[in-house]
TrEMBL record:
<dbReference type="InterPro" id="IPR058240">
    <property type="entry name" value="rSAM_sf"/>
</dbReference>
<dbReference type="InterPro" id="IPR034505">
    <property type="entry name" value="Coproporphyrinogen-III_oxidase"/>
</dbReference>
<comment type="function">
    <text>Probably acts as a heme chaperone, transferring heme to an unknown acceptor. Binds one molecule of heme per monomer, possibly covalently. Binds 1 [4Fe-4S] cluster. The cluster is coordinated with 3 cysteines and an exchangeable S-adenosyl-L-methionine.</text>
</comment>
<dbReference type="InterPro" id="IPR007197">
    <property type="entry name" value="rSAM"/>
</dbReference>
<keyword id="KW-0143">Chaperone</keyword>
<keyword id="KW-0949">S-adenosyl-L-methionine</keyword>
<keyword id="KW-0408">Iron</keyword>
<dbReference type="InterPro" id="IPR006638">
    <property type="entry name" value="Elp3/MiaA/NifB-like_rSAM"/>
</dbReference>
<dbReference type="InterPro" id="IPR004559">
    <property type="entry name" value="HemW-like"/>
</dbReference>
<keyword id="KW-0963">Cytoplasm</keyword>
<comment type="similarity">
    <text>Belongs to the anaerobic coproporphyrinogen-III oxidase family. HemW subfamily.</text>
</comment>
<protein>
    <recommendedName>
        <fullName>Heme chaperone HemW</fullName>
    </recommendedName>
</protein>
<keyword id="KW-0411">Iron-sulfur</keyword>
<keyword id="KW-0349">Heme</keyword>
<keyword id="KW-0479">Metal-binding</keyword>
<feature type="domain" description="Radical SAM core">
    <location>
        <begin position="24"/>
        <end position="268"/>
    </location>
</feature>
<dbReference type="Pfam" id="PF04055">
    <property type="entry name" value="Radical_SAM"/>
</dbReference>
């Protein structure tokens, strides 16, 4: 089942934000995330806030979801205005899930239209939807492109049937190529998502998946190490000995293979798990997260961040629908992290991206650690001399260890 929401302070029913959230807002970019919490099948490794049709119960429906999330978008625009935060153009929009493309393309376009109306969508905004290969058609992708979407992120995960079966992915691997071709035909940028380290996946399996993904010539590739989340079906299978556990050395070997093959094909890393053909095809929405910009998250369980304040919506679609129908904020709780927590998060996120972190922002113990990190080959010397913390390939493999040394854990 989906993981629990964090603890925090109660969120007000009117959703109003404290005056401090307006400080410096004009200097921060603004993005919008739309959570679509529906999946045809729950994958065994997933602990995201998603629901299959039989898990929804009464009080919520895929058929009326576009109307509900559009209502939150309108509500959110009013909250920002009433909280004294001047309107800003929305620079990126990301529809995630779940499987957003389980909804009709017309519904997704309708929600984007509400964003355009209520939130002043920038003319050149990046607008992405996640998609499973079997949840799109040539026609639906054309509708999305015509409606203002600019990018699609396709959940390929693997090219190997037995790996997909372990992950409970139900699509035909051959469908990925079709989905990529249809997206390109519609004029959309294309990203493909891969997962490495699945129990039973051999090195050759992984090489085949990487070569297959590169053969589609996408604009962008993400490759994530499989993480076993407590409470998932896969975690239970490992605990019972039905499948083997994941292995850190196996993860490292596969990461090195991916980076080598991506680089040889002309893809540049810009975040530990992400590579793009050019700077222009990086995912700007995710960069906004990593850089600590502002965003509003709409939908059940979605998280938001404005001016240092974080809040999160109620999880279940029925509870979310009830709040929307009542005209009250769907937020379940919120928090303002203290300076230490903000420094930890900023360091963790900025050191993961190729632009790195300004060493002037490090605490004294972090600056003191830089010499050792250079000597150990974990940060790029030239970048360090230019006052930036940028990870080497070895540093990317040991990103958590680098962070611990910078923070003097």
């Amino acid at each position: 089942m989906p993981s629990a929401l964090p603890l925090g302070d109660p969120a007000p029913a009117d959703g109003l934000l404290p005056a401090s959230c307006a400080d410096g807002a004009a200097e921060r970019s603004f993005s919008l995330y739309v959570h679509i919490p529906f999946c045809a099948v729950r994958c065994g490794y997933c602990d995201f806030n998603t629901y299959t049709a039989h898990e929804l119960g009464s009080g919520s429906s895929q058929d009326t979801y576009a109307e509900a999330v559009s209502a939150e978008i309108a509500f959110g625009a009013k909250v920002l205005t009433d909280s004294g935060i001047a309107p800003r153009e929305v620079s990126t929009v990301f529809f995630g899930g779940g499987t957003p493309t389980l909804l009709p393309a017309e519904d997704l376009v309708r929600v984007l239209g509400e964003i355009r109306t209520q939130w002043n969508l920038a003319p050149d905004a990046e607008v992405t939807t996640e998609a499973n290969p079997d949840s799109v058609t040539r026609e639906s992708l054309a509708v999305l492109a015509d409606g203002g979407f600019t990018r699609v992120s396709i959940g390929m995960q693997s090219a190997i049937p037995h790996v997909l079966a372990t992950l409970d992915r139900t699509h035909d691997p051959e469908r990925v190529g079709l989905a990529v071709d249809w997206a390109k035909e519609a004029g959309l940028q294309v990203s493909v998502d891969l997962i490495y380290g699945t129990p039973g996946e051999s090195i050759e399996d992984w090489r085949t998946s990487v070569h297959t993904a590169l053969g589609y010539d996408p604009d962008h590739i993400s490759a994530y190490a499989l993480i076993i989340e407590d409470g998932t079906r896969l975690a239970g299978q490992i605990r019972r000995g039905e499948v083997q556990n994941i292995d850190d050395d196996d993860h490292a070997d596969k990461y090195l293979i991916a980076d080598e093959l991506f680089a040889a094909a002309g893809y540049q890393w810009y975040e530990v798990s992400n590579w793009s053909k050019t700077e222009e095809t990086r995912c700007l929405h995710n960069l906004a997260y990593w850089r600590g910009e502002d965003w509003w998250g709409a939908g059940p369980g979605a998280h938001s961040h404005v001016g240092g304040l974080r809040w999160w919506n109620v999880k279940h679609p029925a509870a979310y629908q009830q709040r929307i129908d009542a005209g009250t904020s769907p937020a379940a709780g919120r928090e303002s992290p203290d300076a230490e927590a903000r420094y930890l998060e900023k360091s963790m996120l900025l050191t993961r991206i190729v632009d790195g972190m300004d060493t002037a922002e490090l605490a004294p113990e972090g600056r003191k650690a830089m010499a050792g990190l250079i000597a150990d080959g974990l940060v790029v010397p030239e970048a360090a001399f230019a006052q930036r913390v940028v990870l080497t390939l070895q540093g990317r493999l040991l990103a958590d260890a680098v962070l611990r040394r910078l923070l003097d854990f």
